[in-house]
């Protein structure tokens, strides 16, 4: 789930739950939903400052906001139960091997603490034994890209190993993924 609020562009809380290429909007009293075949992808809540405290809108604490969102939409749309687990986590590249059908891609196995993910990566500096930032399936990148399971040249990929640029962090000029030092703990949230 991604929450966006900027009072300078209007008193609207933008709630993104899932990405989709096909969607339609439905207007309700005080909010608009974004749906795909009746699956709720997101919503825009108007006059947000009347429902949410200033602290909720500036801190964007997902847990407290979800409860109020459910109060707003329950009569029209049911409830949302988003996965609030961290989507940007520290991973450890256990295996990195060349993609069999692509010169510039590697197939990695990345330990993210509670599971191992297969991620296809095109960065030139990815290698075994690195600690990296992983955007798990369900993450929204700073540029709005939704991370979903995909397939690259016939190989499944479940997440993304991120560069500083993709994370909207200060670029140090290093081309490729952001390699972390050993102080980071595998599985911990990268954005604490």
TrEMBL record:
GO terms for molecular function: tRNA binding. Residues 82-191 form the TRNA-binding domain. It comes from the Bacteria. The keyword RNA-binding applies. Keywords: RNA-binding, tRNA-binding. It holds the Pfam family tRNA_bind. This is DUF4479 domain-containing protein. The lineage of its organism: Bacteria, Bacillati, Bacillota, Bacilli, Bacillales.
């Amino acid at each position: 789930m991604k929450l966006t609020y900027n009072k300078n562009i209007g008193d609207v809380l933008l709630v993104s739950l899932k990405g989709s290429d096909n969607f339609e909007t439905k207007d309700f009293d005080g909010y608009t939903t974004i749906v795909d075949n009746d699956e709720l992808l997101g919503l825009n809540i108007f006059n947000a400052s009347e429902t949410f405290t200033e602290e909720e809108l500036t801190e964007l604490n997902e847990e407290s906001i979800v409860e109020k969102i459910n109060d707003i939409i329950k009569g029209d749309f049911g409830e949302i139960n988003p996965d609030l687990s961290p989507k940007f986590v520290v991973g450890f590249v256990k295996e990195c091997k060349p993609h069999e059908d692509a010169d510039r891609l590697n197939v990695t196995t990345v330990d993210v603490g509670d599971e191992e993910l297969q991620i296809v990566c095109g960065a030139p500096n990815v290698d075994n034994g690195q600690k990296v930032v992983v955007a798990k399936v369900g993450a929204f990148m700073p540029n709005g890209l939704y991370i979903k399971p995909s397939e690259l040249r016939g190989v499944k990929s479940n997440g993304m190993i991120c560069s500083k640029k993709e994370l909207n962090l200060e670029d140090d000029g290093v081309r490729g993924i952001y390699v972390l030092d050993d102080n980071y703990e595998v599985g911990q949230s990268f954005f604490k």
